[in-house]
Amino acid sequence: RYRPAGVRAMPGSRCPRPALPVLRWLPRYSRAWLPLDVLAGLAVGLTAVPQALAYAELAGLPLQYGLYSSFMGCFVYCLLGTAKDVTLGPTAIMSLLVSSYAFHQPVYAVLLAFLCGCIQLAMGLLRLGFLLDFISCPVIKGFTSAASITISFNQVKNILGLQGIPRQFFLQLYETLRRIGETRAGDAVLGLSCLAALAGLRAMKSHLPQAVPTAPLAARISHLIVWICATARNALVVLCAGLVAYSFQVMGSQPFRLTGSIPQGLPPFRPPRFSLAAPNGTVPFPSMLQDMGVGLAVVPLMGLLESVAIAKAF
């Protein structure tokens, strides 16, 4: 720390640590990082839109809820976050869990998110992080592998353009194989083309040589263009696929199954609803807690385990 000449520090004195994490890293931020951060923000932002729609569909919720959850947490985490690699917003595993414990009801999903946040906050205040040490790695890997298989196969029906497929895994597998003859050619071609483009751009980046400062200007510009395209491959593929679908829409011939219209704007800012109006009456708060059951323990624990796993990986 900087100290004026001739001034001695008091024994045991310390500079007060800022309460907000943003005040710790923002003064040390270098403007040299800004171009890459802007590129990363554009790539992640454009990728988050279709990803959020897919997560909402996986959770069985209206698509706009995927968009809400994809960006709202980022505004809070940029002020309070301490790990830059932690995923903020919906994830595949959490969406799958919400599908199981929210019963495709937005009211249940919002209340589940609120209660899980309260539980995680209480665990942090009570220093209960040691409980995660008792969850073995085989259990985590087994659950993650099963969730990965379920999530991956859940997207097959979307690539093939099949509708009306059940959400249960074995019924989904049976119905997808039984109705594979109903595959929409446009959806299949576009989906497989996007997968091939993503794989090709990823391989291109891994084999891209380092830029040579003494190379001609044209070579350096070409290297930069290839590097940007390979780095922002997700956003690039999303934009290209969107332009293709829009072109067919303008021409009046749409071979793809589109998402459809999504309500505009943001929902009103209010506390979660602690009751649910049903056709045969009102579901009170205790009944909603009973319906969610073990989800109130599983969902916050899995959220913490995901964050811990990412923190350890990076």
Give the distance, in angstroms, between the N- and C-terminal Cα atoms. 28 Å
| Total number of beta strands | 2
Major sheet strand order: 1-2
Compressed to H and E, one letter per element, the order equals: HHHHHHHHHHHEEHH
- Average pLDDT, all residues: 85
What structural class do helix, strand and pairing data support?
mainly alpha
Overall morphology:
globular
Kindly estimate the percentage of residues that lie in beta strands according to DSSP.
under 5%
Low-confidence stretches: 1-10
Radius of gyration: 24 Å
User: Counting H and I runs of at least 4 residues, what is the number of helices?
Assistant: 13
**How many strands, which pairing sense, and closed or not: the largest β-sheet?**
2 strands, antiparallel
Tell me roughly what share of residues is in helical segments. 55-70%
